[in-house]
Amino acid sequence: MSGLEATPDPAAGQAAPHDVPVPYMQRTRDWYLALGFDNPYVWAHYRDVPFAPLKKPVTQVKLALITTAAPYQADKGDQGPGAPYNAAAKFYSVYSGDVRDDHDLRIAHVAIDRDNTTMEDPGSWFPLPALRAVEGRLFGSLTDRFHGLPTNRSVRHTLAVDAPEILRRVQEDGAEAALLVPNCPVCHQSVTLIARHLEAEGIPTVIMGCARDVVDHVGAPRFLFSDFPLGNSAGKPKDPDSQAQTLALALRVLEQAPAARTMVQNPQIWSEDPAWKLDYSNVATRSEEEMAQHRAKAHADREIARQIRQG
């Protein structure tokens, strides 16, 4: 057999070479180096993963929802559909909200895939309405509050500050399990660190996410992977069936996972054309002019975030 690779045959069901989960960790490293930040980000990485078995059927479980989406702030600039990354809209402390109220949560503050999703449908990143629709049927009940988790790049801060605070709040609410929904790559790291902390304290968790490499690298107890562009962890936008199916599968993973590091892939396909996977933070697909624009904005955004943290 020669050393030449055979050309994939779509008629035989073979996928294109790039039709694989997006390598977000490597893309992010390369992107930040290209933006002029000298030290590549060091991702959290664990070998051992805690695992708390579910103590009762999921149909009897009191469930907490944890999100990395941010409450809309009208005075913080564009946060609507198609908005560019908005550092001013970030939040830095855990917050909570009443699950019986409707909430306007946005994701303009994080690095989602703006080339392939429009941020038009909150149901694709904040599944509270979908959870209320199946409460008492696919799972027992929601806790009185959901909780917002900051997207902190500092692993130390997430573990020392955010994780204990999330644990305190979900314990106070009587949660018997937790569903975590991230958006950007660092969001996926943050929720995985929180899931590990909760599981070590006896609270089973499941993550609904799109960045498979990040979650696997950190080490998640249970993970439902949807091969969708970042910003769609809860299902396809404007597609209630996709969102309902994604949530139902996540609840099944929560109940049926046999051990730590259980990863189930959502069978839904984002698009018959996998070319979208080549877009996110890919230096190879950007012109020097584009990179210069991204470089200027990245440094300006970092200064905005620094001022917010210090102010």
Q: How would you describe the overall organization of this protein?
A:
The chain is an alpha/beta fold and 311 residues long. The protein has seven helices and ten strands. It has helices at 24-34, 128-134, 155-172, 185-200, 212-218, 240-256, 288-310; strands spanning 62-67, 70-71, 95-98, 105-106, 141-142, 145-148, 177-181, 205-209, 222-225, 262-265. Strands 1, 3, 5, 6, 7, 8, 9 and 10 form an eight-stranded mixed beta sheet that branches. α5 links the parallel β8 and β9. α3 crosses α4 (185-200). The N and C termini lie far apart (65 Å). Mean pLDDT is 92; it is low at 1-6.
Short précis:
With 311 residues, the protein is α/β, with parallel strands linked by helices. The chain has helices at residues 24-34, 128-134, 155-172, 185-200, 212-218, 240-256, 288-310; strands at 62-67, 70-71, 95-98, 105-106, 141-142, 145-148, 177-181, 205-209, 222-225, 262-265. It contains seven helices and ten strands.
